[in-house]
Amino acid sequence: AQSVTQLGSHVSVSEGALVLLRCNYSSSVPPYLFWYVQYPNQGLQLLLKYTSAATLVKGINGFEAEFKKSETSFHLTKPSAHMSDAAEYFCAVSPSGANNLFFGTGTRLTVIP
Amino acid sequence: GAGVSQSPSNKVTEKGKDVELRCDPISGHTALYWYRQSLGQGLEFLIYFQGNSAPDKSGLPSDRFSAERTGGSVSTLTIQRTQQEDSAVYLCASSLYSGGAETQYFGPGTRLLVL
Prior knowledge:
The complex is a heterodimer. By secondary structure, chain A is mainly beta. Helix content of chain A is 0%, strand content 51%. In chain A, the strands form 3 sheets. In chain A, strands 2, 5, 6, 10, 11 and 12 form a 6-stranded mixed beta sheet that branches. Chain A starts with a strand and ends with a strand. By secondary structure, chain B is mainly beta. Chain B is 0% helix and 48% strand. Chain B has strands spanning 5-7, 10-13, 19-24, 31-38, 42-50, 65-69, 75-79, 88-95, 105-106, 110-114. Chain B is globular.
């Protein structure tokens, strides 16, 4: 069965500091990988996705993620946190042949001024 | 353009009552998905529609849950004889085509509270 693990349900960073949100997946075949962001009382918005092209994927709002097959990871980073980045972030996978997404449990990012 | 819309935004019901949740996907999107977001279970897939094909119901938690998609557009998720554990945010998403690489666009959700 597919699973996605997000290490750290809560992450706090200072404004201007590096943001690193971790995601590991379990699959023998590299799946498609996604990062979504959810602001309070809103739906999920796609930040970026990996679809077997470039391993370093750039997304919106200055975020990027690197697919590392050897580590089965797809960690999300941003060089400098902004107050507006405070939200919940979900990593998701779509296994080969599947149509639906399997989500991690989410990481709530707090940005300290 | 307009995104995915869902109604109602909030629904409070009594245990044992039936509820219907509505989803209007992005115009032209052929695939539609329902997910449930709850404190205990996180984000779970419920059901998937693609065009006129039979839906993938593999995520529905019980036979009290059903969904339909009329005319390849609007979808309704029905929960019969609601239970307190059904309390959650129900999210609808649509994508232009089916396939794992497709971006799913999510609606704002319907927050269901079963008393």
